[in-house]
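Q: What does the assembled structure look like for these inputs?
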Amino acid sequence: MDLYVPILVLAVLAGGFAIFSVAIAPFTGPKRWNRAKLDAYECGIEPTPQPVGGGRFPLKYMVTAMLFIVFDIEIIFLYPWAVSFAPELNDAGQAIAPGLGLFALVEMLLFIVTVLAAYAYVWRRKGLDWD
Amino acid sequence: MNSIPAPTIEYGTLAPLLVVFGAAIIGVLVEAFAPRYLRKAIHVPLTLLSLAGAFALVLVQVLRGQVSTTASAVGALAVDGPSLFIWGVILVLSFVCVLLINDEGHFVASAAAVPGSADEEEAESAGGGHTEVYPLVLFAVGGMLLFPASHDLLMMFVALEVMSLPLYLLCGLARRRRLLSQEASMKYFLLGAFSSAFFLYGTAMIYGYAGTVSLPGINQALARGAALDPLLMIGLAMLGVGLMFKIGAAPFQAWKPDVYQGAPTPITALMASGTLVAAVGAVLRVFWVGLGNLDWNWRPVIWGVAALTMIVGSILAITQTDIKRMLAYSSIAHAGFLLVGVMATFGTAEQNASSLKAILFYLAVYGITTVGAFAVVTLVRDPGGEAGHLSRWAGLGKRAPMLAGVFAFFLLAFAGIPLTSGFFGKYAVFAAALDSGTQPGDSMGGWMAALVVVGVVASAIAAFFYVRVIVLMFFSEPSADGPAIAVPSMGTVTVIAVSLLVTVGVGLYPESVLGVADDAARSLFIR
Amino acid sequence: MTTHYLILSGLLFAIGAMGVLIRRNAIVVFMCVELMLNACNLAFVTFSRQVGNLEGQIIAFFVMVVAAAEVVVGLAIIVTIFRTRRSASVDDANLLKY
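A:
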C-alpha cells in the first residue's frame, strides 16, 4: 500500500488546488461583466462573424501560437531528466543505480534559467499582451 | 532499465563556448530589462568583451599546452588542435564583424513595421536600429564554434541550427532596400531548412547503419561492416547534400548570391567569413573522422563537386553586375578551392597534417580578407543605400584613391596574386593536393593533378573578373553623380586596417600564420 | 517488422521534398519541410528499436525542439514578408536574381 501513498497525496494536493482556485476566484478576481463573457467561449473575445470561405485570422493568434510552441516544447527535456534523476531502487529499497544527483539538478536549473531569459524578453517587450 | 550515469563536463576546455553563449543570454536579458537608450551602450562592450574573452581562453589552452586529446562532454565535442585554431579564427573574424555591425545605419529600426508605412517612419524618426542584433550575432557565433567541434552528428545538427537560425533573422534586418533583405531572409530560410532536413535524414540512415551517431563510432562500423549497404550510401549522399549546401558548393550554391546581396553588408561579411570557416571545419571533421574508412567512396564525388564549384563560381562571377553578388560567386569559387584541400586529407598522418595545415591557413587568410572587402563595400553609398551596381563603381579610383586602392588589393588577394596572403593560401592547398596524388595507394592518383589543373584554370578565370573591377575603378571616368564615399567610423577604419595589415603581412611573412596552423594541424582531429 | 516504418518514413520524406519543390505558398513549403523533419524522427525512432539502443529516441527529442525553434523563426520571416507584399507566394519573391 505504501507505494500508493504518494499518488494519494498528489491526488489530494491536485484536487485541493483545483477547489482552492475555483473558490478563491470570486473573492480576488476583478468582476467586469460584458457580452463576450456571457457568450459561447472563444478565447474570451467576442466571436467575429467570418466571411464566406474562411477569411484571415488576425496576426495576434499567430504570435501567441508561436510563443506557445517554443516554450511548450522545452518541457520535452524535463521528461528524461525526471525519469533518471532519482536513484533506481530494487524491490528491497536498495539503490541499484545512482541517480544523477546535484549535478543534474544544477544543469536543469541552468537550462530553465536560459528558457526564462527568453520568457523575460517576451514579457518585457509586451509579447504577452493581447492589445 | 538502463541507468544513465551523471556525465562529466570539462568546463575548462569548453570555457570559450560557455563565455559566448553566456554573453548571448545576458544580451537577451539586457534587451528585456535595460531602457532603450542604454541598450546599445551595454551590448557593444558586452559582445566585444565576450568575444575577446573567449579568444583569450582559447589562447590560454594553447599556450599552456593543454590541448585535449580526448573528446569532451562525454564524446559530444572534440576540442582538439584544429578545433582550437578554427575557434580562434572565428572569434577574431566575428570580433571584427561586430565592429562593422556596430556602425549606425545598417539595421532596420523596427523589423515589424511594413516598409513605406507610417509605422516605419515613426520608428525611423525615433532613431537607432534593432539592438537584438547583438545577442543574435553571439548565438550565431556560438553555433559556429560548436559546428566544427561537434564529435557526433546530433551535436552537429543542433550546432548547424544554432548557427543558422539567428542568421536567417539577421539577413532580414537591413535598413535600406528592405524588400530585398526580407526576400533574402526567406530564401535563405526555406533553402536552409530544406538542406538541414536532408542532413538529418542522412544522419538517420547512418544511425541505422552504424547504430551510433558518434563520428568515431561510425568510422569503426565502416571498418567492420559491409561497405556497400544501401542505408550507408543514402545516408552519405544526404549528409553530403546538407554539408555542401552550408559551404555553398555547386550544385547547391544557388542561395549564396541572393542571400549575400540582400543581407545587411556586415552580416554578409559574417556569413562569408565565419560561417564558411565553421562549415569547412565541419566538412573536414565529418569526412575525415567519421568517413575516413570510406574515402575511396566519397573522394570521387567530392572531386566532381570541387571541380564544378570552382568552375561555376568563377564563370558566373564574370556575368555579375552587382558587387556583393560578384563577391558571393567569388566565395563559391573559394569554397571549391577549399574542397580541393579536403580531397587531399588522405593517406599517412603527415599527409593529413600538411593538407589540414593548408586548409586552416587558407581559411584564416581568406576570412579576414573577405571581411575587409565587405567593409569597403559598406562605405560606397548612393542616396538609397549602398551603391551595389558595378557601374556605380566606375572611376572610384579617381574620386577615392585610398579606398579603391585598398579594395583593389583585397581583390588581388582573392585572385591569389603573389605577395598577397591569398597566393600562399592557394599555393598551400594545391601543393597538398598534388602531394596527395603521389601517395602510394591513392585511388585518385593522377586525378588529383587534374583537379589542381582545373583549380588553376578557375583561378585564372577568377583573376579576370577581379582585374576587370580594378580596371573599372581606375581606368574609367567617374560619372558626375557618382556615389558618395561615407566618412568611415572608427570601427570600420579598424576593420579595414586590420584586414589590410593581415593580408599584406601574411603575404610577406606567411610563416607566421603557417607556423600556428602547422602546430594546430600536427595534432590532427581526435579520431 | 521495422521495415514498414522505414518505408513510411521514406514516403513521408519524399512527399515533403516534393512539396518543397512544387508548392508555391511559402507556408505550405515550410510545412513540407516540417514533414521531412518528422519523417526523420520516425526513422530515428525505428532505427532505435532496430539497433537496440536509446540514442535514436533521444535524437528525436532534440529534433522536435529544433523543429519548434525553426517554426517560430520561419513563421516570423514569412509573416513579415507577407505583410510587406500581401502575398506569401515564393514566385513573387523575384527581386534577387542572376
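Chain A touches chain C through twelve residues (CB under 8 Å).
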